[in-house]
Design a protein that fits this description.
This protein is of the alpha+beta class. It has one domain: Transposase Inhibitor Protein From Tn5, Chain A, domain 1. The strands form 3 sheets. Strands 7-8-13-12-11-9-10 form a 7-stranded mixed sheet, with helices on both faces. Strands 1, 2, 3 and 4 form a 4-stranded antiparallel sheet that branches. The longest helix has 25 residues. It is globular, with a radius of gyration of 23 Å. The protein starts with a strand and ends in a 6-residue tail after the last helix.
Length: about 280
């Protein structure tokens, strides 16, 4: 599961690591650390296998406005492909790659299917151009995904621009806590998957949404007291290792990260009290 999260650090000095990033969870640009991670999920346990920190080291001038801004030398899609390649080289078995619509570009689809030799499940935007057949694609007879009738046919085998193989697409209606209904179009390179199966697999990606909260509140990701980018990067690495240890304890004890943190804290306080009791009292 590929995840992109921003840990806000509003009171820290700006640097190549701590800069302004758009945070989709709040819908605005915030100052903080932008973390791109690959989380491996199997048998109810999720472990971070690779991560990249978005460091804006290049100054770029907007040709229209003439304003300068700092940008990262590599795109997030390039970083995601490199992380997937690392996992494949380490011979870690993959059933599928899950990510949000930001990573559903044609190049990522080709890489995962043809070079990583695994499947993907990505959401597509409703205005994504699709063709109903290889002939329609060759003749550039495109139509938007939202124009298809998913009421009579729950799944379609469709062709996407710059993707050399057909993909299976299903439509799902989801409701939030305010009972507002939204559409989710899921796309998979595995043509044998049914719509419900595709949704069941993709819902595992929502497990990744728990990681930023635990990293921040249980592993102190955004609370580094250091000032330099390389020492701040070391702190991020240590926080991710701590998250991995919490997840290992969770799989053994069946307790959540917050409950484990409370137990560890309670044990540490008891040990401190024992040490104080054992120490000799100073004499007058």
């Amino acid at each position: 599961m590929i995840d992109d999260t921003v840990q806000e650090k509003p009171y820290s000095d700006e640097s190549e690591l701590i800069s302004w990033h758009f945070d989709p969870s709040v819908g605005r640009t915030v100052k903080g650390i932008n973390l791109l991670s690959a989380l491996y999920f199997s048998q109810g346990t999720s472990l971070p296998l690779a991560f990249e920190l978005i460091q804006k080291t290049q100054l770029e001038t907007n040709t229209k406005t003439g304003k300068d801004k700092w940008v990262c030398a590599r795109s997030k899609n390039e970083m995601a492909r490199e992380m997937i390649a690392q996992i494949v080289r380490k011979q870690i078995p993959l059933a599928s790659v899950l990510a949000d619509s930001w990573f559903s570009c044609a190049e990522n689809m080709r890489f995962i299917k043809q070079k990583a030799h695994t499947d993907f499940i990505f959401p597509l935007k409703s205005n994504r151009k699709v063709a109903l057949s290889a002939e329609d694609k060759a003749l550039a007879r495109w139509q938007s995904l939202s124009s298809l009738n998913f009421e009579t046919r729950p799944c379609w085998m469709l062709h996407l621009e710059s993707v050399p193989f057909a993909v299976r697409v299903s439509r799902h209606l989801l409701s939030d806590q305010q009972e507002q209904t939204g559409e989710l179009f899921l796309c998979s390179s595995d043509g044998a998957l049914s719509g419900p199966t595709m949704l069941t697999i993709y819902q595992k990606r929502w497990k990744v949404e728990e990681s930023p909260k635990s990293l921040q509140q249980n592993a102190a990701l955004a609370k580094s007291p250091t000032k330099l980018p390389h020492t701040q990067s070391n702190h991020v690495f240590a926080s991710i290792v701590a998250f991995g240890k919490l997840e290992a304890y969770r799989s053994q004890t069946h307790l959540g990260h917050f409950a484990l943190k409370a137990k560890l804290y309670h044990a540490a306080v008891n040990q401190l009290q024992s040490l104080k009791t054992a120490l000799p009292h100073p004499t007058a």
